[in-house]
UniProtKB/TrEMBL annotation:
Organism the protein comes from: Algibacter marinivivus
PANTHER family: ACETYLORNITHINE AMINOTRANSFERASE, MITOCHONDRIAL, AMINOTRANSFERASE CLASS III
InterPro entries for this protein: Aminotrans_3, Class-III_PLP-dep_AT, PyrdxlP-dep_Trfase, PyrdxlP-dep_Trfase_major, PyrdxlP-dep_Trfase_small
Domain of life from the UniProt record: Bacteria
Upper lineage: Bacteria, Pseudomonadati, Bacteroidota, Flavobacteriia, Flavobacteriales
Keyword Transferase: yes
Family note: Belongs to the class-III pyridoxal-phosphate-dependent aminotransferase family.
Molecular function GO labels: identical protein binding; pyridoxal phosphate binding; transaminase activity
Key words, A-Z: Aminotransferase, Pyridoxal phosphate, Transferase
Protein name: Aspartate aminotransferase family protein
Classification via SUPFAM superfamilies: PLP-dependent transferases
Cofactor: pyridoxal 5'-phosphate
Keyword ATP-binding: no
Amino acid sequence: MPLFNVYPLYDVTPVSGKGVYVYDEKGTEYLDLYGGHAVISIGHAHPKYVEAVTSQVSKLGFYSNAIQNPLQKELADKIEVLSGCKDYELFLCNSGAEANENALKLASFKTGKSRVLAFSNGFHGRTSAAVAATDNKNIIAPINAQQAVTILPLNDIEGVKKELEKGDVCAVIVEFIQGVGGLDEGSAEFFEAVDALCKVNNTMFIADEVQSGYGRSGKFFAFQHYNVTPNIISIAKGMGNGFPIGGILIHPDIEAKFGMLGTTFGGNHLACAAGLSVLNVIEEQKLIDNVNTMSEYFIKIAETIPQIKKIKGRGLMLGLEFDFEVGDLRKKLIYNHHIFTGGAANKKLLRILPPLTVKKEHITMFFEALIETLTEVETTVA
């Protein structure tokens, strides 16, 4: 049976990984500066992660949410300590799209309203309401387009005010650093004004931290760079270091009721073990400190390269913008230098999303390869 052909694939077949490297079936080593869409947070096959998952699966990998699972409470408590998000409650699911879907559903339950405000170039997932709030008509089917969503430009505070005052908006959902869209950010004044407007218009403010959370921005959550208090925070990618897990943190002003949300696989024993090991490693290895140190080193070098027109993002959620499309550049980095990087909706942007364990030597290796490749491109054009 053929696979449904929806992914354009590079001709690389990773079969194993260790730290910031993956290896193909021939043993070729690749430097992974993309982490499978920012999923690999503590490095491939981290020994503490492997130990935790192996130990848990040998005992009990799964049972339903109809029974007690102390690992869920342990995970919730650990998130509270490391994130500093006191008094929030945790609902666990399996992915970022599910997290945002449940966030939007909760917002609608809480407010009794149904319209959503989202922003240009935002990406929130591929399921029903989440994809409707995503600024990409190519992935919104007619069944999704039934959702009531208004998309506004970032920093358009007057537009937000006008829409919220209509009284039918249940949620404003925002990536504080856009991922797929190309690492654009709103201003501090904009985010803080949106938060204030939501609070006076009975609208839930949702922080989509699916990609930017878990230390990637240099703080545990990207919204913590600003003076805002989201009603709901969605998390996923780096949460399980490759094991499917997602969730939402829910402010205590939203009251839980039996049956309100539900999931078969969300918060299973194996997922919780994976999630706990990630948090333990982030804490023990002081990885958020490493994010900030490596980010500073990366940006310092990037600023010396004239072909780079703009450096975008924060922490280890970074983008390098050029005055040409980077598709061929990415291919040369993969095939000639064995380095994985990422693209974005902005075709001129190279995305860098390495494991949070990345070191200076890896960043140096990347820039050496980048400079060599840029020189080759310029020579070819000339």
